[in-house]
TrEMBL record:
Extent of Basic and acidic residues compositional bias: 1-10
Name the UniProt record assigns to this protein: DUF2189 domain-containing protein
Keyword Transmembrane helix belongs to the record: yes
Any Pfam family hit: DUF2189
Transmembrane segments: 38-62, 68-91, 121-146, 172-196, 232-250
UniProt keywords, alphabetically: Membrane, Transmembrane, Transmembrane helix
InterPro entries linked to this entry: DUF2189 (IPR018692)
Region (Disordered): 1-21
Keyword Translocase: no
Domain of life: Bacteria
Originating organism: Piscinibacterium candidicorallinum
Upper taxonomic lineage: Bacteria, Pseudomonadati, Pseudomonadota, Betaproteobacteria, Burkholderiales
Coiled-coil boundaries: none
Length: 280
């Protein structure tokens, strides 16, 4: 007898998932697990890192003498990075499901995610892209309008914005960026891997993400600083470090989601095991 459609496509959860209060050292563990996943299945991660590095290189070549634009573009990358790493979440999920057996995760899993075009992820990605674009425009406008000199190079930015005698432009730039980034981080830190992993509405996933941050405010702040700091380190290595840092952070973000959210009771996506997982 054929399955009823409801059996094949279970209804999406409309309530937020339970969240956990995790130990203070978990962010370091997430990074270690992210690096492990990259080592076990390197090709998809390295390709993600190369793609991001190539994009950053093109942006740098296009706007190398327009640092007023680059400053906003590079920082805006952090806003859209969670959706860029969606394929890496799928790899980490597959490796997790292997449970010690030989993993067969690979590019096919990444392709399946992007080919599926899950509407909730597409919508979320568009919102993040809009937010990132908004910050780039806001950042460029603020710097070009209020800087005493044209900002063309990093040295100009340091001399005329960071170390400006009146000392207010850089503080306003940072405060405005934090004001925009904080709610976006709180909305996306676990919601995107949750949407990939379970059948849940976007509203419930975002609310889950906010609850996870509210339950773990110090750890969330440390995690945000690690994400920003390591990404900045990748930029500071002439972009070469991004080849490894981007996939490591993507895989690590999956493990952050799995520790912060108890999603086992939610209906899984097709092809995802609903088996329980102990809190590591």
């Amino acid at each position: 007898m054929p399955n009823h459609p409801a059996d094949v496509h279970p209804a999406r959860a409309t309530q937020p998932a339970p969240v956990r209060d995790v130990p203070s050292r978990r962010p370091i563990k997430w990074l270690a697990l992210g690096l492990r996943d990259l080592i076990v299945c390197p090709l998809p991660g390295i390709l993600h890192g190369l793609a991001v590095t190539a994009f950053a290189g093109v942006l740098l070549a296009f706007a190398h003498n327009r640092f007023w634009l680059l400053a906003g573009a590079f920082s805006g990358f952090l806003l859209v990075a969670p959706i860029v790493a969606t394929g890496l979440y799928a790899i980490s999920r597959k490796l997790e499901g292997a449970q010690g057996s030989h993993p067969d995760a690979g590019l096919a899993d990444v392709w399946a995610v992007w080919r599926g075009g899950q509407r909730s992820l597409v919508a979320f990605g568009l919102l993040l892209a809009l937010a990132g674009t908004g910050w780039v425009v806001t950042s460029a406008s603020l710097i070009t309008l209020f800087s005493p000199q044209p900002i063309r190079t990093p040295a100009d930015f340091i001399n005329d914005v960071v170390a400006a005698p009146d000392g207010w432009l850089f503080e306003v730039w940072v405060a405005l960026g934090a004001f925009l980034a904080a709610p976006i981080f709180a909305s996306s830190v676990v919601s995107i891997p949750l949407l990939l992993d379970r059948r849940i509405t976007v509203y419930a996933a975002v609310l889950t993400s906010w609850r996870a941050v509210a339950t773990n405010p110090v750890i969330s702040a440390v995690w945000a600083l690690l994400l920003a700091g390591l990404t900045l380190l990748g930029f500071g290595t002439l972009l070469i470090g991004l080849i490894v840092i981007v996939p490591m952070l993507g895989h690590a973000s999956w493990h952050a989601y799995r520790d912060l959210v108890d999603a086992d009771a939610l209906p899984p996506r097709l092809g995802v095991s609903a088996g329980s997982r102990s809190f590591r």
